[in-house]
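Data availability (excerpt). The following record was deposited with the supplementary files.
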Amino acid sequence: MTLSKLENNPDALEISHFNPKDIVREIRNVLKLQASQKNIVLNIEFPDKEIEIISDATRLREILINLVGNAIKFTSQGSVTVKLYNPNIEHPEQITTLHFTVADTGKGMDAEEMKLLFHRFTQSLSQDRNSTGFGLGLAICKEMVLSLGGKIWVESKKGQGSQFHFTIDAQAKLLPKPSFISQKSLSVEQINLKPPPPSPTPIQLNILVVDDNAMARNVLMMSLKQKGYHQCEIATTGLEAVNWFKQKSFDIIFMDMKMPVMGGIEATEIIRKIEREKNILPVVIIGISADARDIHAANAIKSGMNDYFTKPYSKEKLFEKMDQLAQSKQKPLNLNWSTASPEF
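Predicted structure:
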């Protein structure tokens, strides 16, 4: 999500009912590999009570993935802990403040560095702490927190790690604890009930996600896996994407536009050249960028991409087009993906 889109659409929230614990668990599952590769322990702490809130799950997810990803990036040893504090819910219709923290055992920051963190177009003196790969990083986090009625702040000392706090305001209610029925208490009618049919598993597509930013890849990979698409490979440069294409057949490639070594435009042109030389069906290539200018979309299509979209984009439209592709197993020449409904 870009800062300009947040400012132009401050009220464009995607409201739903959800348990905030589920969002925290998602973030842990997405980033635990990144943490384990650095021998960092990724912890989560919850209150005992189960709650349901009415808010924007997508924005909460992006806030957390930014903060947790940053914490892992700037921690060389120790742990990162995500904590949801026990909310005070007195009445189900009452607006409740939820308090989250993301704490790390990294090198910490001094007062001057902390002053710069949430400013636009500024970087922390501590190796670009403000850059998370989502455009303006912590500035975007701040805008998203404000859009959810909350605030964000940091506590840190040099050599003692950092704690990022944020709150959101939401209507909340307590959920009943799961009830356990003993086998003896089940009636014959209950025992003979057939379980509901399982959700249909989508036809599997071979997908390549190409992006040099780990968190951008993680957000897309998480959404794909939630839908049931598990056959995903990743590349961090256009050159890696070309090498993957030479080794394996893909149904769809999500191609970031700006990457080191080789960008998405050049990689697409090389892939299309290989397809022509080998006389093989063209893979669907979708360009990804935070730049919404028409010239970039035109250059993407000219290079051979099937389509081009900017963040935030509609998850529903993405899945709709992928389902169409899965059902036909044919490569469409053009896709018209709407970007009107922000999901990422």
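Summary of structural features: The radius of gyration is 22 Å.
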